[in-house]
Each structure stands twice: as C-alpha cells, then as structure tokens.
Amino acid sequence: ERERAAFVQRLMQAEGLLDVHQDETGNVYGRLAGRGEAAPLIVSAHLDTVFPAGTDLTLRQGEGMLSGPGIGDNSLGVAGLFGLLWMLRQAGQPPRGDIWLVGNVGEEGLGDLCGMKAVVRRFEAAVSAYLVLEGMSLGQVYHRGLGVQRFRITVQAPGGHSWANYGRPSAIHRLARLITRLESLPVPATPRSSLNVGVIAGGTSVNTIAAQAHLELDLRSEAVSALADLVAQVAQLVAESNQPEEGVTCRAEVIGLRPAGGMAADHPLVMLAMNCLREQGISPALRIGSTDANIPLSQGLPAVCVGLTTGSGAHTLRENIQTAPLGSGLGQLLALAQGAF
C-alpha cells in the first residue's frame, strides 16, 4: 500500500491537484477546487488488493477485456479517480464544491477499513456525500453496509512429544473440535447471515503435540441483531472450550469490525445513483455489501458505492475486467459526482 500510495501521490501532484498529501494512516488526498457553493464531495477508491508483494502483475489483453491480479479490485477504481478528474476538467466549469479524491488503505483482509475510518474522522458530516469506487459491479448501487465481525480464536495446551506424551491434549485437536461445533451453529437464511473459518494455523512439527493453534473467523449478517446473536453463540463455544483442569485455554480477540448501516432506497443520493445508471441504459440494482461505504453509512452519513465496469475472477490470479462498459461506467460516475452536491 505504501508504494501504491506514493505512486498515486506523484500522479496527483503531476495533475496539479491542490493540497496533495498523505495522512498518518497512509491515505492519499488531492483536492479539485470548486466554486464554494456547496460542502465538499469525497470520492474514494481503496489502494490495496488481496495479493502479496511479489505477485506477477503482468497485464494481459484479450478480446474486449484486460486480465491481471487486482485489475478490477481495485486498480480500476483508483484509475477512476483520475478519469473523473479529467472529465470534470473537460466539462469546462468547476464543480459546485471542492472534490477530494482519495486513495485509501485498509479495505481488504484485516485492514478493517482503517483508511476509510480515518477519512470519515477527518471530514465527518461536513460533506455533500461520500462516493466509493470499485472497479467492478457496474449497475449495482451499494446503499447498505453489511455488518461484519471477525475473530482470532487461540487455543493453548501443554503440548509435548507425540509418543512419549501421548494422551496430553493437543491445541490443534481441540481447535478442530471447536471448528466442528462452529459449523453446526444455526446460521439464519433470513436475514441472510454467514459464518466462515478462513484461516487455521498452529503446531510445531509432525511429531509434536501442538501447544498452540488458532483460527480466524468471519461472521456476517444483514441484521445487526442476527450478527449479535451469532457473536454470542461463538463466545459461548469459546467459553466451553476452556478446560483449565487439563491446562487448555481458549480465547477470542476481535480482529475486525465493519459496522452496519444504510440509507433508504428513496434517499436522494440513492435515487440519483440509480438515475445516473438508467441514463446510461443500465438497469440499476440496489445491494447490501461490505465496502468502504460501511463507515459513513454506519454514522448516518450519505454514501454509496458504485462500480465502473463488469468483470469476473475477483481475488484470483485470473481476475479480469470488460473494457466495453467502461464508457458507461465513467458516464454514470461523472453524472453522479456532478449531481451529488
């Protein structure tokens, strides 16, 4: 993220944006001056992808498509910041208010939306709106933030030699039991909810009774109450997994919290976003999801997340975007930015 942020900062400076800088979190900001008739508009795109440093980023061009790791999520979103800037300048008239273009960090993985949290702390309610850009998902308007809570659950046990100390409790075995119990929890279909163990790790060697093991758990729900119920059930299972008389401890720590929130379908910003798509001949679809928009939405601030094109293979090395819809995606973005004041 640091290298990407430095790159975007250089581009913003080359474009002559005002007040170009990075904050303590690593977000990059640049300001396009407006006419001073309205509160500023914040347009953001997350800089990070899910791929580690060293990933082969060779871009491949096919029939009407581009393919490469992170091309749609979210390199295209970041590029959209500059596409918007160029289109606004071509419009020939400054926008009603300042537009802050932001490349933010911490959207993927365990970033916990730290970048957007810093953006919202900075501007708070003194904005016209927050517009969040994702490279893909053209035609979808995310106006509701999906609640997400993540835990790292760690089991510790005495450990020992697999032969000499056979019979002692193993942290890995106890963690496996816990995973089985987690999988058996009743996860409601309505409101839609989910439970996923995405990471497990632990142990020392094949002939060692594991003294430590941990998992990373992702819980989601469309309803705050349903998510809270899942969290409570997980806490109960963790408590029951503690066996101090055997030297086994189990503890859970929160490693991610993406608060829920949303705006009504008839909110002016939501209706504007839908109309901007219709003007491009695209039928809009309202969505709930876990995006950077969760943060302003959870605080009752006007925000939507929109896409710039269609694609597939997100979060895989086969990730790709379709180039033909980009004109429509940028057209809806320009209209949305101009109308959001």
Q: What does it look like?
A:
With 341 residues, this protein is of the alpha+beta class. Helices cover 31% and strands 30% of the residues. The chain has eight helices and 19 strands. A hairpin with a 2-residue loop joins strand 4 and strand 5. The mean pLDDT is 97.
Question: What attributes does this structure have?
Answer:
alpha+beta; nine-stranded mixed beta sheet; single chain; 341 residues; four-stranded antiparallel beta sheet
Describe the structure concisely.
The chain has 341 residues and is α+β, with helices and mostly antiparallel strands. The protein has helices at residues 2-14, 71-90, 114-123, 171-183, 224-241, 268-279, 294-298, 326-339, and strands spanning 18-22, 28-32, 41-46, 60-62, 65-67, 99-104, 129-134, 140-145, 147-156, 160-161, 193-202, 208-209, 212-221, 249-258, 261-262, 285-289, 303-307, 311-312, 320-322.
